[in-house]
Amino acid sequence: MNPNSSLTVAQLNGILSIADDAIISVDDDQKIILFNQGAERVFGWKAEEILGKELNKLLPPRYHEGHHKHIAEFDRSGLEARKMAERRAIFAMRRDGTEFPAEASISKLAVGGTTIHTVILRDISARKAYERELEVAKERAEAAMQAKSMFLANMSHEIRTPLNAVIGMTSLLLNTRIDEEQRDYAQTIRASSEVLLTIINDILDYSKIEVGKLDIERQPFDLRRCVEESLDLLSSNAAEKNINLAYFIDDSVPAQLVGDVTRLRQILVNLLSNSIKFTHRGEVVVSVSARAGEDSLYEITFSVKDTGIGIPEDRQAELFQVFTQVDASTTRKYGGTGLGLAISKRLAEVMGGRMWLESEVGVGSTFHFTITVEASGSQLAHSFLQERSSSLAGRRVLIVDDNSTNRRILVKQSLLWGMVPSAAASAIEALDLVRHGHAFDVGILDMSMPEMDGLGLALEIRKYRDEYALPLIMLTSVANRPRDATLALVKFAAYLNKPIKPTALFDSLLHAMRIEPVHAQQARPRTSNGKLAETHPLKILVAEDNTVNQKVVQQLLAHLGYRADVVANGAEVLDALERQNYDVVLMDVQMPEMDGLEATRRLRARYGASGPRVIAMTANAMPGDREKCLSAGMDSYVSKPVELEDLRSVLIDVAGSGRNDVEDASPIIDRRRIDQLLELQDENNPTLASDIIQLFINDSPKHLQNIDDALAAGRAEDLLSAAHRFLSSIENLGAHRMRKHCMELERLGREGTLEGGEALLDSLRREFDIARQHLLTIVQSV
Ligand code: ADP
Questions:
Q1: Residue 261: what pLDDT?
Q2: 499 CA to centre of ligand 1 in angstroms
Q3: Which of 319, 368, 547 has the most ligand 1 atoms within 8 A of CB, as the residue to mutate?
Q4: How far apart are the two ends of the chain, measured CA to CA in Å?
Q5: CB-hemisphere CA count at 13 Å for 45?
């Protein structure tokens, strides 16, 4: 066939008939002039039956009018003939009157004087039905997921409550007189329960994220501190394995950000603990960089890089799913639940970022994540301490470390302060510099280096320079600090712990070179070395729902010499107080189940002013928050993130002060008395404590009656003996507040006067009611 010749009508019809879609043409009057085989199949009309009929026959009546308008609009639009005019979902009508969803396009073609409109139409009912099914299936799956997450959340909560009792009871047990073997068992119970609690908290956290119940805070925070605190939590783990821990914050990163510091720290701690867990030698380095976006928003990128075992490429993608681990065998070497990464990734996403990883087996892994946050203020992280650094400018510092990351950090930081650094990668290299007459004002030596360690190097250096000519700073991890007799010969000016922190480095440099801080009043308060717990022994309970925050506060307290118990919400605080007495509760204000304010109100209702001192930990810096805390019955507060020095001074405050309310200054019942009774219990007297309590409750009304009788009869000597007898059983139980009134009555009797006796008896009765309530709950708990 001649390729230039046109198709015949028959050929054209042939082609049209092959099409699956319905192809329908109408003339100026909307009469059907073409109806292909596809159209016959879709509509159920034969062409010969429908040709010449109105197009409306194929449309549900409700479209008839609209259809005309639509054609008119299309004509007015002046769009090219043959071009697809419009695609949209519509409904068409079969011969039997049933409707079906369709997708159609329309085009027009001018033929001679008339315009022919052609509609190409596809029946999409099957697809629509499929889509609907998918939608329903998706909704069902989501509902099931929600139900599962709710179940997980409830279950974890239910498990946590008794588990906290196990932990509380174990710590109670550890405070009693038990032998070494028993102590060992009890400590194992406590440690294992704490691990279990962490896992359950992870599950709870994850399910909270899944059901969208996780609220992200927006508070200004110091990024450098957040990174340092995360590293602090894990530095001892790293030191035990001899892994170098370091961090590096890029010049571009703002110092203060607005966001959720707790969640950020949670991600960092998760990634860091994984890196340390899966690394056997080398280092773990956190780096932070920033990219400025619009409206003072920054995308901050965090990278946690390790030199660990690495992750095979084909396993990398799935690790972010829950409960996945590279080695899932039951004999696996590394513990864990496989939840950490899933939680971390979701948290990063909730904070407007993402998470990904790069890894090579045997070389190491780098986990990256971003968050999108606002900067608070214009200060950059690197300008840290800048204004005070002029005293260091021009000083020559010798830096010796075999680890290149540490060297890089030290060199960079000293350059930022205007110092003149020289770096050596080994003791030999450093000695060369010193021997050849290089003058240094100060040296920073890493303790653990191959061949010659920091101590050996220092001894060599001392052959050339004494401690005045070249003060030396030793860089160690706490766990690896040497306890060698030769230390005394070297006279180190300061010790610096890894990871290297600019503040500590700055202070050590000033101290080593005996430089007075430029702005003495701005200098950080020197941390006193004495343990507060020795001068102010306190039993402390920490109430905080976030596990990482729990650890931070516990660690700060450990720093001060306290070993605190931890619970996760207000209800658990009340439970814990039923089991044992605490002097201080550090109470997070916002907690699930029961918040800190409510818990304090109930605590005060139950124990009055004699209950523990409550210190609020609050992120809210809103005016009025302090008043809210105090009016709920809290004694003081520290703002979050909690600072060591703030914590120290607030503890000194509350430990030293009685409560203001003089009337209630003494405890209803002195728990120590009960504890002593409990200690006296043995196989022969298994219920000694509760027996004595019961006896007291039963006998007291009789004593009260005797006092009443003595007053009514006006007999002072009877009053004296009645009050005296009652007093001894009151003292036996440590019912302090009753004691006060009873002693007064005894005094009246002794002095031979009855004046004011009725009022005192009333108070004593009231106090007895309170004490009885209190004792009954104690009986239930012992
Ligand atoms: P868990 O550590 O509790 O098992 P995660 O979700 O944190 O749970 O980690 C899941 C798995 O990912 C780990 O079990 C481990 O196989 C792998 N993984 C995570 N981080 C690293 C890392 N830094 N190096 C090697 N493997 C890792």
A1: 87
A2: 23
A3: 319
A4: 105
A5: 25
Q: Looking at ligand 1, which atom is closest to the CA of residue 343?
A: 6
For residue 348, pLDDT over 60 is answered with yes
Protein residue closest via CA to atom 13 of ligand 1: 325
> Do the Cβ atoms of 670 and 734 come closer than 8 Å?
yes
In the predicted structure, residue 53 carries a pLDDT above the cut 90: yes
Contact by Cβ (8 Å): 366, 372 = no
Q: Indicate the DSSP class of residue 658.
A: P
CA distance to 105, 115, 486, 774, per residue, from 76 (Å): 17, 13, 99, 88
3-class SS letters over 611-639: CCEEEEEECCCCCCHHHHHHHCCCCEEEE
Q: pLDDT digit string (tens) for 285-334?
A: 999 999 988 877 899 999 999 999 999 999 888 888 877 777 766 545 66
Query: Which residue's CA is minimally distant from atom 19 of ligand 1?
Result: 274
Of residues 376, 382, 390, 152, the one with CA closest to residue 256: 376
Q: Please give the average per-residue pLDDT across 668-679, as a whole number.
A: 76
Residue among 290, 225, 317 at smallest CA distance from 262: 225
pLDDT, position 385: 59
- Best residue among 325, 330, 346, 359 to mutate for probing ligand 1's pocket (most ligand atoms within 8 Å of CB) is 325
Pocket of ligand 1 (CB under 6 A): 270, 274-275, 278, 306, 308-309, 311, 319, 325-327, 336-342, 365
- Nearest to residue 110, comparing CAs of 25, 35, 36? 25
74 within 8 A of 106, measured Cβ to Cβ: yes
* pLDDT for res 274: 93
Geometric angle at alpha carbon 632, from 627 and 633, rounded to 5°:
100
CA 80 / ligand 1 centre spacing (Å): 60
Nearest CA to ligand 1 atom 25: 310
Please check whether residue 288 is in contact with residue 250, taking contact to mean a CB–CB distance below 8 angstroms: yes
Q: How close is the Cα of 197 to the center of ligand 1, in Å?
A: 19
Does residue 464 have a pLDDT over 80? yes
3-state SS string for 382-413: HHCCHHHHHHHCCCEEEEECCCHHHHHHHHHH
Among 170-179, 539-548, 623-632, 662-671, name the one with the lowest average pLDDT: 662-671
Q: Please, where are the H alpha helices in 21-124?
A: 37-43, 47-50, 64-76
* Atom 8 (ligand 1) nearest CA: 338
Taking the C-alpha atoms of residue 289 and residue 703, their distance in angstroms, rounded to an integer, is: 74
Three-state SS string across 432-462, please? Answer: HHHHCCCCCCEEEEECCCCCCCHHHHHHHHH
What is the average pLDDT across 740-748?
Answer: 85
* Percentage of residues in the chain having pLDDT higher than 70: 89
Supply the mean pLDDT for the chain.
82
195-499-247 Cα angle (round to 5): 95
pLDDT at 525: 37
Span from the CA of 310 to the centroid of ligand 1 (angstroms):
10
Q: How far is the CA of 693 from the centre of ligand 1 (A)?
A: 53
Q: What is the pLDDT of residues 114-124, one digit of tens each?
A: 888 888 888 88
Question: Are the C-beta atoms of 257 and 296 separated by less than 8 Å?
Answer: no
Residue 2 has pLDDT above 70, yes or no: no
Kindly provide the b/e burial profile for residues 589-610, where b requires at least 16 CB atoms within 10 angstroms of the residue's own CB: bbbbebbbbbbbbbbbebbbbb
d(CA 571, CA 576): 9
CA distances 363 to 71, 269, 280, 359, Å, are 68, 22, 11, 8
Residue 381: is its pLDDT beyond 70?
Answer: no
Q: What is the mean pLDDT of residues 118-140?
A: 90
DSSP H/E element including 143 = helix 125-174
Q: What pLDDT, in 10s, does the model give residues 540-583?
A: 999 988 777 788 888 888 888 888 888 888 888 998 888 777 88
Distance between Cα 325 and ligand 1 center (Å): 6
What is the Cα–Cα distance from 341 to 274, expressed in whole angstroms?
Answer: 9
